[in-house]
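User: I'm writing a tutorial on reading structure tokens. Could you give me a worked example: one chain, its sequence, then its tokens, then a sentence or two explaining what the tokens reveal?
Assistant: Sure. Here is the example chain.
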Amino acid sequence: MNENGQIEARRQLDIIETCKQEIADRARELGRPLTYHISTFGCQMNFKDSEKLAGILEQLGYVEACDEKADFVLLNTCTVRENANLKVYGHLGILKSYKKKNPNMMIALCGCMMQEDVVLKKIQESYRFVDIIFGTHNIYKLAELIQTRMHSNRMVIDIWKDAKEIVEDLPSVRKYSFKAGVNIMFGCNNFCTYCIVPYVRGRERSREPEDIIAEIECMVRDGVVEVMLLGQNVNSYGKTLEQKITFAELLRRVEQIEGLKRIRFMTSHPKDLSDDLIAVMKDSNKICRHIHLPVQCGSSRLLEKMNRRYTKEQYLALVRKIREAMPDISLTTDIMVGFPGETEEDFQDTIDVVRQAEYDSCYTFIYSKRTGTPAAKEEQVPEEIVKERFQRLLDVVAEESAKRTGRLEGRTAEVLVEGVSEQDSSMVTGRLSNNLLVHFPGTEDMIGKLIMVRLDEAKGFYYIGSVVE
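And here are its predicted structure tokens:
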């Protein structure tokens, strides 16, 4: 973190200390601690942001509540698809009734959805009971925004169109004690024609490798054994730094951290996944055998319209190269149906990619028109055609995934135990290096540990196993 970022971090820590006293005074008046609740929508980066926001709130003296009937409710929003926006508006309708019963309640909105002018206007006009609105670039200012709202009777709005500084070193509350996400970069420069992310997350900014390493080392000392390196396109990491460094080189450095057992990353754009990255993964004992490689669709014609900068043939060649280097790799992907102009021939190309790539799983979704993106101006595919194609895609994905299911049956593998099974308290749930889930008899004290497990029976997208003594 550069000097300006360090100065701002110190300034925010000072604000936290002053605001903390005011929160304590309010708690004494009520005769109880003030509570908070964060609802997070969207991607892994949003969940990481929510951990930071929770850290600030707890440093201020708030105590987490199990539902949205809290004194401070924050919705960390996503706007990748229209459905995500509708969910937020639905939550706001419920929160309005809660606030009537608790006039001291504060409601805050942040995240990608707030970066859209049309959304901001709607909130200002139709949801006047919201107290604080901020975006994706200034989440570290939460305490300052709360303090401002406590001293005014108006809606506090702080939306930035972009940001140059990266401000870290502020409190954070991790969901898991044994694994954590680590931001290595922010923003996106790809400008896929259907995607709103570059407009709401801003341009790419990479963190200095020394700051990333220091953060992970601190986490490992605190008990973390697995990290997830996060970026909109991790393959672009390092391009904005004065001293250039590739993502593959960063992985080499992270791998050298003593005590760290597993390394994951997300997301990897097919256009610039390098041979060096494949080589680093192949030779690594720590980098997990899983790559999420979004294809979006199989039609080279549509991929060009999407500005994805690869063809169907190039994508499949990359898949073959990855599998040749790492036959045990687990590949997952994102697939969209109904991009403007999609024909039956385009759709069949997508089906062909699913059959050839042999994914372990696919995140499938229907194209969602996002105002402000180039694709939104194109002629849309009729809804009934899109839904029919989507169902056909789901059928093929299920069929192809079933072929991969069970390939590890009978083998012994290392599992990171993540929790007690929600269905059976005598079982625990863990994750293989390739990201597949395993359920096996165990106890709560296994959580956070790496256990050798025999994979006895495949059950679709997970295994039933037993501990190897």
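What the tokens reveal: Residues 9 and 168 are 7 Å apart (CA to CA). The chain has a mean pLDDT of 94.
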